[in-house]
Amino acid sequence: MPNKSGDSPGFFDEGGLKRTIDLLKDEIRELYLEDNAPWIVGYSGGKDSTAVLQLVWAAIEELPKNKRSKKVHVISTDTLVENPVVVNWVMRSLDTMKKAAETEGLPIAAHRLTPDKKDTFWVNLIGRGYPAPRRKFRWCTERLKIEPSNKFIKNLTRKHGSAILVLGIRKAESSKRTAVMNRLEKQRVRDRLSPNANLPNCQVYSPIEKWTNDAVWTFLMQFKNPWGYDNKQLLTMYQGASPDGECPLVVDTSTPSCGSSRFGCWVCTMVDEDRSMQAMIRNDAEKEWMMPLLDLRNELGDLNDRERRDFRRMHGNVQLFHDEPIPGPYLQHVREHWLKRVLEARMLARENAPPEAGELDFISLDELREIRRIWVEEKHEMEDSLPRIYKDVTGEEFPDGRLDDGQVFGMEEINLLREICGEKDLHFELVRELLHVEWMYRSRVRRAGLYERLEKAFKRGFYDDAEDAEARALRKENTINKKIAEIKKEQPFLL
């Protein structure tokens, strides 16, 4: 039921919704005018970040024009593998935001941040062969999310000396979040501003830290979006991504909320299943074009992938755990398979998605070029198979020609080399790498580093097979353990 002031129940009961918002905008303006440190608002397009940006926007909009002197940077990190429905929503929101800020004369600048080419998901998984992320090897978050935003923030703090990071984090999100925020709250040196351990010159302001999930939705539904976006469409998007098909405004403890709806990378293998994408497809027939993405994500999510991976680690060494090799990167044919699957998913999605779904460029030309470079120049896979796979799937020629005329062997030479090596795959890879290394140095005036590269190739590929490599690694480990035992026995004080 509504309270006496006519506002929605929940977080706003005590002071009423309008008074609560007015007081919070006063606080925002006070902090904004307190110093010259620029503000950085984290914006994901979700409900919490939208609520925070609306509050900041509305507070600054009410200031006299001569006091709107400090820049507010809105940053949105696109991992390039975000849920395509969400990322399309966010990109259109940023465009609308830029136009509205310019029209209204507000010092608000919107930025879309992306990971460096060398750090993207597909360059690492398909190019370098990193296995799909898992709890003990979560290589994606740092590269895709943290690094792009930290780079922007560090550049800004370097220029201005400090910055204020405004985030839509809430204690009600989880017990872990509550504990972290309570700990940082005790370290505050300025009212409402918490320190950031990773960004020493940047303090964190979390204006809705005490809000409940219900309070966020109540605010979004009752206060118009100031840059002209429709919050009801945001609610609809959450509703479509909710596994039970509903996302109501909670009115009592028995009513479910959509706090469990999860937006993020569509390739994420850190969860057992992508419930939000499944729900979108189930709840809206027009989103069935995402099925190829869900199928690919589920195939990536099969983490029992030892047979798909090299028995050697990334740098060629064999590392044992409980007398078994720790598997390394994906094998060549597996990486080629993932490339084919991504291109197929992109093609099917583009064929079946409506125009409003956007460009749907799940893997960019720059990423394809970098993958090709890694395969040929770093992994010495002279077949240069990427252009062939690209043409087989798309029916089109790859935009670039040969990497270097005469550098890469043709398939006739590669097949001959395979025939000579017989069934010894490791011998084929070793000879191929030795030939390619020599070819790379063929025209250099100074051939410094050639012998080191050749030695590295021999160390990586001299084994007969995986069993031979495992046996050698086990003998080496036993020898080391024996030496340690002898030292312990003879000179225990050294250990």
Task: Draw up the topology in text.
Layout: H1 17-34, E1 39-42, H2 47-61, E2 72-77, H3 84-104, E3 108-113, H4 121-128, H5 140-160, E4 163-166, H6 175-185, E5 193-194, E6 202-205, H7 213-222, H8 231-241, H9 275-283, H10 291-300, E7 320-321, E8 324-325, H11 332-352, H12 365-378, H13 386-394, H14 411-421, H15 425-440, H16 450-461, H17 466-490
Parallel strand pairs: 1-2, 1-4, 2-3, 4-6
Antiparallel strand pairs: 5-6, 7-8
Structure notes:
The chain is an alpha/beta fold. The protein has a domain at 17-241: Rossmann fold (3-Layer(aba) Sandwich). The chain contains 17 helices and 8 strands. α15 runs antiparallel to α16 (450-461). It starts with 16 loop residues before the first helix and ends in a 5-residue tail after the last helix.
List keywords for this structure.
about 500 residues; alpha/beta; Rossmann fold; six-stranded mixed β-sheet; two-stranded antiparallel ribbon; 8 strands; about 5% strand; globular
**What portion of the residues fall into strands of 2 or more residues?**
5-15%
Total count of strands: 8
Q: Indicate the overall shape.
A: globular
Poorly predicted runs of 5 or more residues: 1-10, 244-261
Helix content: 40-55%
Count of individual helical segments: 17
Q: In whole angstroms, how far apart are the ends?
A: 70 Å
SSE order, one letter for each helix or strand: HEHEHEHHEHEEHHHHEEHHHHHHH
Task: Using the 3D structure, state the CATH architecture of one domain.
Answer: 3-Layer(aba) Sandwich
Strand order of the largest sheet: 3-2-1-4-6-5
Based on secondary structure, the structural category is alpha/beta
**Mind describing the biggest β-sheet?**
6 strands, mixed
Task: Write down the overall mean pLDDT.
Answer: 85
CATH homologous superfamily assignment of one domain = HUPs
Q: Any idea what the radius of gyration is?
A: 28 Å
Question: What is the CATH domain class of one domain?
Answer: Alpha Beta
CATH topology of one domain: Rossmann fold
